[in-house]
C-alpha cells in the first residue's frame, strides 16, 4: 500500500484499508507520505481501524500544530509528535507489526528521504511538515519537510520494499477553479499542488492499482468529517476490487518469471 498526503482528506485511506480487510486481502507492507505516514503507522502497529477513526474525528489543529514565531514557518508540529508518542504503542519502526516506509523531503538536496528504521515519530513529523505552514524538522543531520513535495503518493518507496503489486491511494487533488488565492496558505497549497500535478506520471508508473476517492471540496482541516472521508475511501476501494483480485489471481498462478522486475512489469497496467 502507498498512502498519499492530504491532511484530513487522508482518512479516506481508512476506508480503503477496511475494504481490503473485509475482502480478506492482507497488506504486506505500507509506504506513507504526510497523513499517509500517520495512518500507515497506526495500521502497521495493529491499531483497529475504528479506533484510528475515533482518534482522527477528535483531532483539532492544536493537536498537531502550535503557532510560533519563526522565519521558517508559522507553526511547529511538535504537538503531533507528542500526540503520537501518547497514542502509539510502537515508537520505533522495528516495533511495528508490518514493514513501513515513511517519506520526507530533504530541503538540502531536494531528494526524497525514506525512513524504514529508527525513531518512528520523528520520521512522521518530518513527513508531515508542510512547507510554509510548519517549520522543517531537523532530524538525523538533515532539514526535512513534507514528503508530498517529492512523493505525493509513495508508490516508488512501496515498490522498493519488495512489493510485486503496489496499490496507490491518492486523496489530495486540488479543485482548480481559476480563482486567485486569497491568503498565503492557499498560495503555498496551490504552488505545491501544481508541482505535484506534474509528478503524476512518475508515481502512477509504479502503481498496479490506483485508487482515488472522490472527496470534492473536502477541506484539509475538516477532521470532524473523517467518517465522510472514510466512506469515500470505501466506495473507491470497492470499485477497484475486481482489478485487485485479477492481479492477485495472476500473481498466484505458476509463472516462469522469477525476478521482481519481471513480475512488476507483468502487474503494471499499460
Verbal overview:
The chain is α/β, with parallel strands linked by helices and 270 residues long. It has eleven helices and eleven strands. It has helices at 12-22, 35-44, 49-57, 61-64, 78-87, 120-127, 155-159, 184-197, 200-204, 226-252, 260-267, and strands at 2-3, 30-33, 66-67, 73-76, 100-106, 112-115, 132-134, 137-139, 142-146, 167-169, 209-211. The strands form two sheets. Strands 1, 2, 5, 6, 8, 9, 10 and 11 form an eight-stranded mixed β-sheet that branches. A three-stranded mixed β-sheet has the order 3-4-7. Strand 3 (66-67) and strand 4 form a beta hairpin. Helix 1 (12-22) crosses helix 10. The radius of gyration is 18 Å and the shape is globular. The protein starts with a strand and ends with a helix.
Tell me the layout of helices and strands.
Blueprint: E1 2-3, H1 12-22, E2 30-33, H2 35-44, H3 49-57, H4 61-64, E3 66-67, E4 73-76, H5 78-87, E5 100-106, E6 112-115, H6 120-127, E7 132-134, E8 137-139, E9 142-146, H7 155-159, E10 167-169, H8 184-197, H9 200-204, E11 209-211, H10 226-252, H11 260-267
Parallel strand pairs: 1-2, 1-10, 2-5, 4-7, 10-11
Antiparallel strand pairs: 3-4, 5-6, 5-9, 8-9
